[in-house]
Amino acid sequence: MTTIRTAWVVAPRLSAVETPLARTRRARRIDRVLAERYPDAVIELDFTTPLELLVATILSAQSTDVRVNQVTPALFARYPDAAAYAAADRAELEELIRPTGFFRAKAQSLIGLGQALVERYGGEVPRRMKDLVTLPGVGRKTANVVLGNAFGVPGLPVDTHVLRLSRRLGLTENDDPVAVEADLCALIPKRDWTMFSHRLIIHGRRTCHARRPACGACPLARLCPSYGIGETDPVRAAKLVKDGPVRARPDGEPA
Fold it and tell me: What is the C-alpha to C-alpha distance for residues 193 and 181, in angstroms, rounded to an integer?
């Protein structure tokens, strides 16, 4: 059951002109509050190796992590390494990943991914952003997911939740994910980039919904310039909060 802190229900108006230092301090306080609310936030995709996470993240586009996690055990058993994907029978691969949607395009990406890894990186997933983004089906968001969660290299994936919440919280005025990533990375210590993304994703799924945010049940009310765009009554807002396992999706889509 979600605990509602009624002391945070009424949010004072934030300064119309916020200095860079004030914004940095507020962003870091937001991170601390979210860390308290979601102490066990982790990525939701199941994986044991960097390659498995890379494949699962590609499959999670326009899908749910629940569905991806249902598909990947058989997929990972059938294709244990990059060479297996490179040599995959397209029809067989498509059938295995069909439940995740867009299976033809995803199969093309996975085969191309396997080939690129074998040809350029000895079958291993590279540990650098500049290398990851050259792989089929891999953009900055996917690369950051892999860097942060498989290699422990700080990365800040900007998904739909991170984009929406960072703008609502007044942490950026940009709407381009790459620019938003740069803005957030400038505010949050590098060591916390990965977890900050997870916490924003969780908060976006649980409380700060796209259509009807639960403002009256939000622990960030005092820190949010957008307070009041959603339900402010504490009782009604509490009913909008979604409970569940605290696990973050890399692409921010509902589970």
Answer: 10
Note the pLDDT of residue 40. Answer: 86
* Region 112-135 average pLDDT: 97
Distance from first CA to last CA of the chain, Å, rounded? Answer: 19
**pTM as predicted:** 0.84
Among candidate residues 31, 65, 159, 183, the one labeled active-site is: 159
User: Are 192 and 26 in contact, with CB atoms under 8 Å apart?
Assistant: no
Report all structural domains of the chain as residue ranges with CATH numbers, in order of start: 6-42+156-248 (1.10.1670.10), 50-150 (1.10.340.30)
Tens-digit pLDDT profile for residues 148-166: 999 999 999 999 899 999 9
Among residues 31, 65, 106, 141, the one annotated as catalytic is: 141
Known catalytic membership, residue 159: yes
